[in-house]
Structure formats: structure tokens, C-alpha cells
């Protein structure tokens, strides 16, 4: 009798395993069916070394830096950035005018297919106005094809 009960228990366990695996497979199939080409574009885009310069306590402005890599087969254009923790974010570049360094606002930044761009001190950067926290910050990068990439930024001393 003990052998018969053990066989029934093992059979029930296998049935449960099959049910769990079936549900998991269904979930994966449904998830893959919901994806579209925008996901492929974003998955071919990577943001590396994203950081914000720690500003003095009395300032609500800072700058953001990162490397943006376009591994896709199509050109992308960065058209803006937003964050719930920041009033305004502008894209800037630094230019040298004689002996004076000036910032110039950029409306768009092209990222050719298979190429990368750097936002770095002394060059292109995100100019942050109205910083509302010194805690963890995520910035949403917006592209001309309607896609966005939400990027966590680390804080660094300059």
C-alpha cells in the first residue's frame, strides 16, 4: 500500500511541475508576442557610465555625463531628456570662443548606426536645472522615433 501511495504522490508532483512549466512557457510566448520594433531599437542602444556631478549644497544645477552606443542598424537622434526629479534638462555642448569657454544648447544629437557619442566634461553634456533631490535619479532619454530609454545616474564628485 505504501508503494501505491508514493507513486500517487510522485505523479501529483510531476503534474504540478508540468503545470508550472506550461504556465511559464505561456507567459514567455505572450511576452514575446507583445514586443514591437521599438523594443529591438532600444535593446540595440546602450547607455554606459551615466553620472551626475555633485553640485554645492546651495545650487540646484548640475551636469550629466554618459556614453551612448547605437548598436542598431539605423541612425538615431536624441531629441531630449526628462526626469520627475528635475525641472528642466537641456542638451549642451561646450565651445571655445577665443579664450572663453561657452555653452551652446543643442536641439538634437545624431547617433549614427554602429557609432557612439560621449557626454563628457568639456564637451557635450546634459545641463540640469531645478534639481529637486540628491538621492538616486533616473533620466529618460527621448529619441526622434518616439522611443525612450530610462537611465539611472550615479552621483560623482568632480
Question: What's a concise summary of this model?
Answer:
This protein is an alpha+beta fold and 158 residues long. It has helices at 2-34, 37-43; strands at residues 45-53, 61-70, 76-82, 86-97, 100-106, 109-111, 116-119, 125-131, 137-143, 148-156.
pLDDT averaged residue by residue: 81
Distance between the termini: 75 Å
Class of secondary structure makeup: alpha+beta
pLDDT < 50 stretches: 19-41
Radius of gyration: 24 Å
**Fraction of helical residues:** 25-40%
How would you describe this structure to a colleague?
By secondary structure, this protein is of the alpha+beta class. Helices cover 25% and strands 47% of the residues. Strands 1, 2, 3, 4, 5, 6, 7, 8, 9 and 10 form a ten-stranded mixed β-sheet that branches. About 15% of the residues have low confidence.
Question: Any key phrases for this structure?
Answer:
single chain, 158 residues, alpha+beta, ten-stranded mixed sheet, 2 helices, 10 strands, 47% strand
Amino acid at each position: 500500500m505504501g508503494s501505491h501511495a508514493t507513486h500517487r504522490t510522485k505523479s501529483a508532483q510531476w503534474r504540478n511541475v508540468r503545470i508550472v512549466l506550461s504556465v511559464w512557457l505561456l507567459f514567455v510566448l505572450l511576452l514575446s508576442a507583445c514586443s514591437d520594433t521599438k523594443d529591438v531599437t532600444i535593446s540595440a542602444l546602450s547607455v554606459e557610465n551615466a553620472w551626475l556631478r555633485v553640485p554645492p549644497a546651495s545650487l540646484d544645477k548640475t551636469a550629466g555625463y554618459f556614453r551612448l552606443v547605437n548598436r542598431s542598424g539605423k541612425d538615431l537622434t536624441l531629441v531630449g531628456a526628462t526626469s520627475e526629479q528635475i525641472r528642466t534638462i537641456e542638451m549642451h555642448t561646450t565651445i571655445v570662443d577665443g579664450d572663453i569657454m561657452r555653452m551652446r544648447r543643442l536641439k538634437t544629437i545624431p547617433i549614427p548606426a554602429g557609432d557612439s557619442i560621449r557626454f563628457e566634461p568639456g564637451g557635450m553634456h546634459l545641463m540640469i536645472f531645478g534639481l529637486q533631490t540628491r538621492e538616486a535619479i533616473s533620466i529618460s532619454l527621448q529619441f526622434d522615433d518616439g522611443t525612450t530609454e530610462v537611465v539611472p545616474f550615479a552621483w560623482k564628485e568632480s
